[in-house]
User: Fold this.
Amino acid sequence: MDFSAIRLELVAALIALSLLAVGLIAPRGKREMTGYIAAIAFLGLLALAFLAPGHGSSFLGGRFLNDPLALFFKRVFITAAFLVALMSLRFTAGLEESRSEFFALLAFSLVGMMVLSSANDFLSLYIGLELMTIPLVVLTAYDRASGKSTEAGTKYVLLSAISSAVLLFGLSLLFGASGSLAYGDVAAALAKPAFGPASGDPLAVIGGVMALAGFAFKIAAVPFHMWSPDIYEGAPTPVAAFLAVGSKTAGFAALARLLFFVLPSNGGGLSLVVISLSVLSMVVGNLIALPQTNMKRLLAYSSIAHAGYMLLGLVAASRAGLSALLYYIVLYLFANVGIFAAISSFGDGGRSGEIASLRGLWKRSPFMAASLLVCLLSLAGIPPAAGFLGKFYLLAEVARQGKLWLAALALLMSLVSISYYISVIRVIIMEKAEDESRIRVPIAQKAILALSALATVGLGVFPGPLTAWTQAIAAAVLR
Amino acid sequence: MESFLFYAFAALVVISALAMILSRNLVHSALYMAAAFLGMAFVYLLLRADYIAVVQILVYVGAISILFVFGIMLTKRDRMDGSNGFNRYGIIAGLVGLALFALLARAVTVAGASRAAPPADVPQAPAGGSAVAISNLFLGQLALPLEASALLLLAALAGAVVIGKGREKSKC
Assistant:
């Protein structure tokens, strides 16, 4: 048994447990130091993930894979957790109590995401999913001073319980159709001529659709998206950021593995389901984002639309498609974290998040306005920000496979999306603020904003290294 | 004999489940739910899953139903009328449920027909019951999910304390 394959998970779990312990033994006035410890620990974990990720590729007879794809997602999750921990320092400083548990729960959620991205059987998949979700529910309800936060937590726990139930029902049907929990055995059983979805084994088709529905909830794809605007709005801003980048990316990690290696999507009915999810998400997400007046709700709808674009990479189901999806995930991470960091720098810690509060930001904090601008342009897909190339890679691959109408629709919807991003930019630059005082941006937020803006422009201008890396991953996992 | 027992227990499950969702009194609903869980435990026994059957009785009948009764007692709402805001969707929900049932029933029958005939008799449970096989799996191949679920329980416990602690200025 080679424990180096689960080295990252072990260290992450150790971080979570230590943070709980530090919160208990630290003197009462010093509890905010858990936040700094968490940020440093996540940074160390990130270094470990890049320098010594463990050489073993599988654990426990292939039930747990540490392949390049899983490793890529783990690096994304750890980066997200690090940035969110930095972003949370200000929020937790305003809390009266339970400051230290916040970061421990963040770390537990991170472990869940890592298990989810490595899971190679249904049991690890489900436990990883719940280990990710349940701490997130608590974090969503963390702002005890705000009724909206409690409401958001209640909604999240109920809806994610329902989605878990649907997912479990689907997995149990897949288990019934194949007689095994391990991905390899399930794929082998479903690929047999009499049993494959292409030839219509109804159990596998219904099971696959239900499993897809469960993860469509996690990535907030239409029609399983209703939860996300309310919860992004009610949750503390750093938690909303973690939901938008961490939880969504984890959903894609699991979906990619299921669709590429377990459920034969090409030619079967399932690819039609994925296409419908993608089309609906792009259309509904972008159109409902247009009239929004709250920045967090706007980001929720725009992240629904982005889930639609990212699903295109799974629709393509090819090496280029997977590589484009991975590229998009990285640029989406930095653009979203940047915007959420900007919202959380406001006086109220981003509790309201009204777009009107951004008025005259150009004068009140030029640095924040500039970084915000770069991130918004990236999400809108305007060069030289990275979003343009991300969309280009996805659409080019879909078009190359002959689904021209799908690429055209995505392009049209992305043009629609430009209008609401531009209207936010107009508020930032053109409108006058009632209160022209300068905003004091906390140093952690400054660091995040600078990093996000630099990464966004850097990935757009020098896409070479990241593209080469994502292509190598896609070539390594898809034969 | 086995099929007679199966139909008897299946009827118990279906009737108690229906009674659970139709009853106006929440405490009655909780008791019907316990009865449905008990019926499921017997069905598991017929499938030679003795360990799951015992766990079903211990955890679901014994603990979860009682937890529900406690929840009803503490929230002091023992009638459906005061607690369920979605009753006006009853007909639509019923139709959706029936459609889903029809779909699943059809899928199971078609899939059952396409497979080889099941063995004449369900294999006997190994000596010592299925608990041995299950514990071997959990401490062997499935050790990682087991450990992850330990973390999950700890995180849930810490989270429950954070949420349940209330807002008054406490020692932390």
